[in-house]
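#help-structures
NK: newbie question, is this the right format to request a structure? protein is Calcineurin-like phosphoesterase domain-containing protein
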Amino acid sequence: MYFITGDQHYGHGRIIKHCGRPYKDENEMDEDMIAKHNGVVGKDDIVINAGDFCWIKAYKSDTYEHGVYKSIRGNDAHSYISRLNGHQIFLRGDHDKWMLARGSHFGDIWSKMMDKERNEFLVVCHYAMHTWARSHYNSWHLYAHSHKELNLRGKRHCVSVDNTDFYPLSFDQVREIMVKKEDNPNFIKPEDRHVRR
């Protein structure tokens, strides 16, 4: 099963005040989000993380050892990742400096045809977009960054934990949301499409 989430900001105490999160400190926030994640995500599930996974500042004294980025604060991205169920796919957000330090390649956009019969094509990016792959065919776009729904027209939805009660959304939940949304602004009805020969 697929799950989608974003804007967790693990280890970022100031996000509690900034976004009005219901936690007394970052430890309580981190533990609650990990428990909620593991309560719905199984070990074999796939989780798409739409950016801003954890807040680890880069310091000159930080190190990169044995494939793990270590912060002088004592935490690192792997300390969160290793506690989460599922196979994690990470997209870059604007606060994901740890990805660069790991020397790995992380994507900006993830897309997949989830169900060809239903024409359910999904595009995930940290940032909300006006158009995206197959949007003229009513594909779906999930984003984070804003930490809340932007009330954009069409089949778009914010998957920030601040918008999902700190749980990842399953693809079935995404489907329930998207079928209620209006068509994309650039949607071309099948009968209006012209086929080139």
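mod (FA): yep, format's fine, and the tokens are attached above. The helical segments are 14-19, 26-40, 77-81, 97-101, 171-178.
NK: thank you!
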